[in-house]
Amino acid sequence: EEVRLKKETKDIFQEGIDHYLEGKFEKAIESFTKVLRANPADRTVNLFIERAKSYASQQTEMDWQGVEILS
C-alpha cells in the first residue's frame, strides 16, 4: 500500500521539491499538503513540510540556495 501511494503522489511531491529548492516555500507547502492528504503516513513529506514552514517563517527566500548545513 505504501509503495502504491508513493507512486501515486510522486509527481505532486516532485512539484513540492521543485518549489522548495526554488525557495518558494508557501507553494511547496501546498504541494506537500496534497501529498499528505493522499498519504498521511508519509514521513518524508512531513519533514519537508516542517522545514518549509520554518524557512517561510524566517523569510529566507532571498538568500536561499537550496542547501541545508547540518551541524
Number of strands: 0
Gap from first CA to last CA: 35 Å
Low-confidence stretches: none
Strand content: under 5%
- Mean pLDDT equals 89
Question: What's the topology here?
Answer:
Layout: H1 2-21, H2 25-38, H3 43-58
Helix pairs in contact: 1-2, 2-3
Compact summary:
The protein is mainly α and 71 residues long.
Q: Can you tell me about this structure?
A:
By secondary structure, this protein is mainly α. The protein is 70% helix and 0% strand. The protein has helices at 2-21, 25-38, 43-58. The longest helix has 20 residues, at 2-21. The protein is elongated and about 40 Å long. It starts with a helix and ends in a 13-residue tail after the last helix. The mean pLDDT is 89.
Characteristics of this structure?
single chain, 71 residues, mainly alpha
